[in-house]
Specification:
alpha/beta; Rossmann fold; 7 strands
Length: 224
Amino acid sequence: MSGSQQVWDDVDDYFIRTLSPDDEALRAALRDSEAAGLPAIAVTAAQGKFLQLLAELQGAQHILEIGTLGGYSTIWMARALPDDGRLISLEYSAKHADVAVRNIARAGLDRIVEVRVGPALESLPKLADENPAPFDLVFIDADKANNVHYVEWALRLTRAGSLIVVDNVVRGGQVTDASSSDPGVVGSRGAIELIAAHPRLSGTALQTVGGKGYDGFALARVLG
């Protein structure tokens, strides 16, 4: 079996075209993100649809996203929410947040989506102080070095049955290297080991291939 990137791209293109076609709001979000110089690290359409389906399966009313970028994944997830739902997305970069806010508004989702700017580890305690309704889904896709802290905060802000998704955990296969000093590897390993050891979490991690190359994500369910 071929493992070439072209094969992965072609299969992803087929899946996306058949199962998760985009629309003008999503295409425009990617175009404007690129035009603004944001890094091309948004989830694929197939991954966005996967997040949307997870939210729908959860019957999600409240979603927390850590790492907004240009709002592409935000749009996918927000579309799963009811009219009275709420999605809070935390973004470190004011520049990224400005692009995301425009993209989200163009998609007609600004009434239920709020983008908060600043380091997530400063925004999360402030969010907790507001005593929000528990989040049904948390998508963690920010600086990987702080993944452990993000999972810990996700636990504080969720309920039994909530889902936590941690993206980009494979790190090009380096996640297996216990001696690595790379912050992204250390953070990803820490998150996976926290999920494994925590009595309130049941989880797994899956390797993926596709338009973004070789990667993977961790998925955990909050038990109580």
